Amino acid sequence: MRTITENRTPDDQRAFVCEFLGTMALVFFAVGAAVLSGEYIGTLGIALAFGLVLLAIAYAVGPISGSHVNPAVTLGMLFARRITLRTAVEYWIAQFLGAIVGAALLLLVAKQVPGLQTHGAFGTNGYGYRSAVGINIFGAFVAEVILTFLLVFVVLAVTHRIAVVGFDGLPIGMALAVVHLIGIPLTGTGVNPARSLAPALFAGSPALTQVWLFLVAPPIGAILAALAHEVTHPALAAVRAARAAAAEAETAARAAGEEG
User: How would you classify residue 123: left for phi > 0, otherwise alpha for psi between -120 and 50, otherwise beta?
Assistant: First the structure.
């Protein structure tokens, strides 16, 4: 099981690439399901697309980067003391860049479909008149916090330190699908600041005027999930922290030996 520390080796830079590619794939394929196929597959199909894409990404890059592909998940990992601030910042950069590239590629494809509306839509999140059920700003905020809480709590509960191994990807993918089944009629389901911001950049106003909520609420849900996990899994958290400290010390010693 790999551990990411401040003493990064060249191979560890793969995590940055994995987070970039994973977030790009999530936006292109999952948001793409809503943009290109939404009227054919409906809410259930879109929810399954998000869950299945994340499941595939988890198996593809989970053992390398943990398959966060979501700044809120990375924040939860940071508050759970599984990664360093430096690693979190690197992940956030990779995730936002990947999401923007994924949205750009999706826009390129969408523009080839005659009559497809992208301005003000394009799989973006919203509340009020931009919500399918007309949820107000307070309701949207609370919903995003709760939905993100569930997703991040599940990720923290089933993963080992950082890596996603074995069957870890199944509950994570299922959690994301369930979150979307509930959240799509409410806000379109954000729970991921990178996924929310990237399409909004290309959809323009009014999507950009509401995107702030989907940049603020998910981190709050992630922090609450990390705090709850400390309460519900104290022994597990202690064991993982001890293993992490030992692994980091070993990596630091190895790096010092190579420099010497």
Answer: left
